[in-house]
């Protein structure tokens, strides 16, 4: 699956917040959170925390991390890497780009940063 | 401190809880490449908070509550032995196992946690308690629809067990002399709101204490006599009245213990080769005064990490304000810092439709000492940053439910 889907115009997602794209809209089997950092960058991760069931889109977004709203595990938004307990499994990344004034999500395509840092 | 000791090559960690695991993980993160063994009598380390939540309710299984997938231990060269230590032999640089065998160790971390405080009344041993997975399995069997369940102690664990029992359709009575409990942890207003949830869910609450439990017939039924003269019949009694640190090994080895193994900020005990972390430990400040034991998950993680640094002779990391959460009846409560107003400060409430949603304790100089909130996790993440950055928040903004949490942190 490499077809991009239009998530909206950049200003539809406020800085420091995220928007959830549901499986019926993305074709991907899990909800995806598209984050906009305070510096205006876009990143996307599987929305459900790898620990329990919280929505990462409802977490605290700061710098290039998101902190889970339930038990405070943090994830790197670029790479999906989990940064502290209780979660121990990385979050899956998805490629997102701003193309011709639209935020375009590529569900199921790893973010470039994830590929670069995967070890 | 340990600067005159050689760098460790064989570290043995006693315990398979989150303090033990965090220490092991932090040792490897810090580049320790010597031998590393976890003595974990219950096998691979697992997480305890779900034992009164998803695991007790049956929505999470044993695999789900493992701290990390099994492969992690091989990848990080951590040997997990499902064995109990029976003695510390620091002078011989070893730990004694149940079969009399010795495991050599040039540093030992005691992370043996705590045991439930026994109910010290005649028949108190008839009460179930909750600390490990086997306890949770036994308790789940007892929480049947229609079963008369009496929970003694309405603190963190007692209240979560009560909520789970209600979920199973049991008929629950909750006994605690303090009404409401948890005031120092979440403040008076939220403590009242949370305690009232029991009654709203059909639980009978009694402000008393049991003085005797008896097996009222040949079957499993119990009779509790209470200090107020009343009696309650039960099919199962559960006690959640606090914990006692499992510090016997340290005491037997001549290490200083006072309601917990005494440690400094890097987990060092009175023996330079022995460290302690988690619920078993108690921090002694540099001025010699003792703190209250923390008894929360994050504190166990942090103290495990600090002890890892300590064992390597490195300074412990700086940690921010302490944090914990609890869940009951589908609400999620978090608190950071302290809400214990006995030493001063003023309380600011954030209310919606007259119902308290969050409480803040502000010091006289305007700094935030603590915050607690029901189902407002971002407010606590904001409070934590305000505290850790030493900011002085605007009290009116704290109280105003229309101010989003992010706007509180400049
Ligand atoms: C039911 C329950 C619910 C909780 N819910 C929350 C919550 O919602 N929020 C929160 O912040 N905190 C919660 N806590 C508290 C938190 O889980 C504890 O603070 C934390 O588990 C302490 O970790 P620990 O590693 O110090 O001890 P433990 O987790 O108790 O681990 C101790 C380990 O030592 C082992 N051990 C004991 N004796 C020996 C020996 N002689 N040799 C070798 N190993 C030994 C034990 O088998 C165990 O593996 C809860 C605790 C419980 C029990
Ligand atoms: S659900 Fe995200 S840390 Fe627990």
From TrEMBL, chain A:
<keyword id="KW-0001">2Fe-2S</keyword>
<dbReference type="Pfam" id="PF00355">
    <property type="entry name" value="Rieske"/>
</dbReference>
<feature type="domain" description="Rieske">
    <location>
        <begin position="18"/>
        <end position="105"/>
    </location>
</feature>
<feature type="region of interest" description="Disordered">
    <location>
        <begin position="1"/>
        <end position="24"/>
    </location>
</feature>
<keyword id="KW-0411">Iron-sulfur</keyword>
<dbReference type="InterPro" id="IPR036922">
    <property type="entry name" value="Rieske_2Fe-2S_sf"/>
</dbReference>
<dbReference type="InterPro" id="IPR017941">
    <property type="entry name" value="Rieske_2Fe-2S"/>
</dbReference>
<protein>
    <submittedName>
        <fullName>Non-heme iron oxygenase ferredoxin subunit</fullName>
    </submittedName>
</protein>
<keyword id="KW-0479">Metal-binding</keyword>
<keyword id="KW-0408">Iron</keyword>
Automatic annotation (TrEMBL), chain B:
<dbReference type="InterPro" id="IPR023753">
    <property type="entry name" value="FAD/NAD-binding_dom"/>
</dbReference>
<feature type="domain" description="FAD/NAD(P)-binding">
    <location>
        <begin position="10"/>
        <end position="304"/>
    </location>
</feature>
<keyword id="KW-0560">Oxidoreductase</keyword>
<dbReference type="InterPro" id="IPR028202">
    <property type="entry name" value="Reductase_C"/>
</dbReference>
<feature type="domain" description="Reductase C-terminal">
    <location>
        <begin position="323"/>
        <end position="408"/>
    </location>
</feature>
<protein>
    <submittedName>
        <fullName>FAD-dependent oxidoreductase</fullName>
    </submittedName>
</protein>
<keyword id="KW-0274">FAD</keyword>
<dbReference type="Pfam" id="PF14759">
    <property type="entry name" value="Reductase_C"/>
</dbReference>
<dbReference type="InterPro" id="IPR016156">
    <property type="entry name" value="FAD/NAD-linked_Rdtase_dimer_sf"/>
</dbReference>
<dbReference type="InterPro" id="IPR036188">
    <property type="entry name" value="FAD/NAD-bd_sf"/>
</dbReference>
<dbReference type="InterPro" id="IPR018225">
    <property type="entry name" value="Transaldolase_AS"/>
</dbReference>
<dbReference type="InterPro" id="IPR050446">
    <property type="entry name" value="FAD-oxidoreductase/Apoptosis"/>
</dbReference>
<dbReference type="Pfam" id="PF07992">
    <property type="entry name" value="Pyr_redox_2"/>
</dbReference>
<keyword id="KW-0285">Flavoprotein</keyword>
